[in-house]
Amino acid sequence: MQSKPLQGRVALVTGGSRGAGRGIALELAQAGAYVYITGRSSTASMDEPSAGPGTLEEVLEEIERYGGAGASIRCDHTRDKETEAALARIDAEQGRLDILVNNVWGGNALPIENKPFWEQPVRHWDNMFDSGVRAQVMTNYYAIPLMRRTEGGGLIIHTTFWDRDRYVGNFYYDLAKNALVRMAYGLSRELRADGIAVIPLSPGWMRTELVLDSMQSDERHWQEVEALKDSESTAYIGRAVAALAADPGVIDKSGLPQQVGKLAAEYGFTDTDGRLVPVFELPE
């Protein structure tokens, strides 16, 4: 019988319809957690520009197909009332929240180019800060009171990118991703007494749906693409989150940036193809 170390836990994964969010939601559910997934890409709203590829309903069907349990909530996290309503529903239905994965991100609406700041469109700010950083701030704002009432501590994850404070090459992207790292640090200080760990988590070169589409490939044929040979599936970060959530000593990592490749070596998990994918490192 497969181990269910997160049985009885309740999780929320924002931006859960695709990419890292989908991978995290599936792995948490397989580990036994009841998983709520939120996002804008719902079957009921496929006429919106934000929808596709992938919907919340499709991910929920996949969770249930593998014997997991959860629910989907159509939520635009840039609208505070919708975020508040989503957390109120979780409170009403479960009365607890053990794991929060802040994964909602609107920063890829424009190409992320390595050009000087003054040559970049200012709209990057709206995409990365309003639809990314602020959306995660407000999710924390409505989720933390519920998490503080939940017995046994908890875990908040911010998916971000971090490589030993190296500059990532795009001013807005670098600023936004480091804001998420700093947000996790500040919250880790404020929530330590409650036993809630807050961790900024950095994946490597992920094969998201958008990446695969840009390479004219899919999850069955990615090994045929040379540029993807060092990539990792979205399940890899999902396994990192599940391992952190099951670790009784996770509070010792609170506030400290973590990289998926290092956690794989520490906790002993591999990617879906059996590889221990090393940490992705930026060039000097």
UniProtKB/TrEMBL annotation:
Transmembrane parts of this sequence: none
Instruction: Check the record and name the Pfam families matching this protein.
Output: adh_short
InterPro entries for this protein: NAD(P)-bd_dom_sf (IPR036291), SDR_fam (IPR002347)
- Its protein name is Oxidoreductase
**Origin species:** Paenibacillus donghaensis
